[in-house]
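> forwarded from #structure-qc
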């Protein structure tokens, strides 16, 4: 297999199989990926830094190891991208901000160390919003529509995958920033259970809400990546000491008799567009046809998730940045600095009240899953397709309180960050204009494997994951 375009269209599973059959090499995969980077970057701006030289060296090393029978697993020899808030030893980690310009960490984040240990090849650091909460200049663009918003703070990770300039990527998710770019770019994104993946060496936005996770183009690939990056880490105080299963072991077992809940009042609220609603209902119907039990549920506590999470995020962000802003505040963009400093005016009683509210919400979610014997909740990932870029940061006259079109994005994704439960976004279809739509599954703590099982069952009923963005291969 020598056609570089054909190589970059492969899934992780297919590329890994081709490597082991001898149909290709890690060096060929890496060279093809770097060629895609060179071809697409002038347009989409997915990477903050491309590690071409070290990637080629790592590819040659992977080929030698595989030839010698030292097989590190499914990611061995596979090119990946990692979000630029994850420390990378000797490689720029600027988190989209001039305040960290030129910063070269002296150690790898645990997630990157795990990828290296598995033989994955780091193509580069993917672009993110400034400190995962501000803007991005120049704007990263979606290959599905260059004039539309490409997602949350893990924008580069989503766009690199959609542009086929990586086989898998790492993002972070404090309030949807893995799942939102997954939905907008026709990808699979997993925010695993809080503590499942170490956040050591990752620049935080809000430490009690931050999650690290994989984005891929296929469900099975995502399960493979999570299996590599998950696990207890003594260097992360919030890391969970739980067993890491084979997330693919039961992925083909289907959904018969699994109970999947839908809370229509909250997740299918009036702000959801007709096309997103229809796509979600189609996924629900398909799962029912496959044997799942669809259960109508009610959870009034969902109404308070946005206010609760926002308070926690603002307080923790302000705490983390207080010293750096004092030293280098003039290097932050004004919007980012203003956002990060909002938490300084919150009272300690506000933060403590929000923490208590979070515990009540977690208890309510746990009770709901137990009472209804649920396997998962289903919803749209976000209520609307990707808005136009000029509208993203500019308030519209027809929206209340100066909100922007992206403010509603958090409605469906915040609950899983607040509860810490696993949540996965996967392709649900397209609008008439050709924009991707995603659906979301929220599961029981540390039961990511069942979410993969459900998503894989649906993936086999459609061809959404096979569609190519119009601005990728011409």
């Amino acid at each position: 297999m020598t056609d570089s375009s054909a190589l970059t269209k492969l899934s992780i599973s297919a590329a890994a199989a081709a490597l082991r059959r001898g149909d290709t090499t890690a060096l060929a995969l890496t060279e093809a990926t770097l060629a895609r980077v060179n071809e697409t970057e002038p347009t989409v701006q997915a990477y903050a830094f491309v590690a071409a030289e070290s990637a080629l060296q790592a590819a040659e090393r992977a080929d030698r190891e595989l030839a010698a029978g030292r097989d590190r697993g499914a990611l061995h020899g596979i090119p990946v991208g990692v979000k630029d808030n994850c420390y990378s030893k000797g490689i720029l980690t600027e988190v989209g901000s001039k305040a960290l310009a030129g910063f070269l960490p002296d150690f790898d984040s645990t997630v990157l160390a795990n990828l290296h240990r598995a033989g994955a090849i780091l193509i580069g650091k993917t672009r993110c919003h400034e400190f995962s909460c501000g803007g991005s200049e120049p704007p990263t663009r979606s290959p599905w529509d260059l004039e539309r918003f490409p997602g949350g703070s893990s924008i580069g990770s989503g766009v690199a995958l959609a542009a086929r300039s990586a086989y898998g990527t790492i993002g972070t998710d404090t309030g949807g920033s893995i799942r939102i770019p997954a939905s907008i770019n026709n990808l699979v994104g997993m925010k695993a259970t809080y503590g499942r993946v170490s956040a050591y060496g990752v620049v935080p936005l809000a430490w009690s809400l931050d999650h690290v996770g994989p984005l891929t183009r296929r469900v099975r690939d995502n399960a493979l990546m999570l299996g590599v990056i998950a696990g207890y880490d003594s260097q992360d105080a919030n890391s969970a000491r739980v067993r890491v299963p084979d997330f693919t072991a039961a992925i083909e077992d289907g959904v018969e008799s699994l109970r999947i809940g839908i809370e229509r009042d909250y997740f299918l609220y009036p702000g959801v567009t007709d096309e997103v609603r229809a796509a979600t209902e189609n996924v629900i119907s398909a799962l029912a046809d496959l044997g799942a039990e669809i259960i109508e549920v009610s959870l009034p506590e969902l109404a308070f998730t946005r206010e609760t999470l926002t308070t926690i995020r603002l307080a923790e962000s302000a705490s983390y940045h207080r010293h750096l802003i004092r030293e280098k505040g003039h290097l932050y963009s004004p919007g980012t600095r203003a956002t990060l400093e909002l938490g300084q005016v919150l009272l300690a009683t506000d933060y403590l009240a929000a923490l208590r509210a979070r515990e009540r919400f977690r208890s309510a979610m746990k009770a709901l899953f137990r009472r209804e014997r649920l396997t998962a909740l289903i919803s749209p990932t976000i209520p609307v397709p990707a808005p136009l870029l000029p509208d993203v940061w500019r308030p519209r006259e027809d929206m209340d309180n100066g909100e922007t079109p992206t403010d509603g994005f958090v409605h469906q994704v915040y609950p899983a960050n607040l509860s810490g439960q696993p949540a996965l976004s996967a392709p649900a279809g397209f609008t008439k204009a050709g924009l991707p739509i995603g659906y979301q599954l929220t599961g029981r703590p540390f039961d990511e494997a069942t979410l993969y099982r459900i998503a894989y069952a649906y993936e086999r009923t459609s061809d959404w994951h096979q569609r190519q963005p119009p601005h990728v291969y011409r």
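QC bot note: The domain at 4-466 is CATH 3.90.1300.10 (Amidase signature (AS) enzymes). The radius of gyration is 21 Å.
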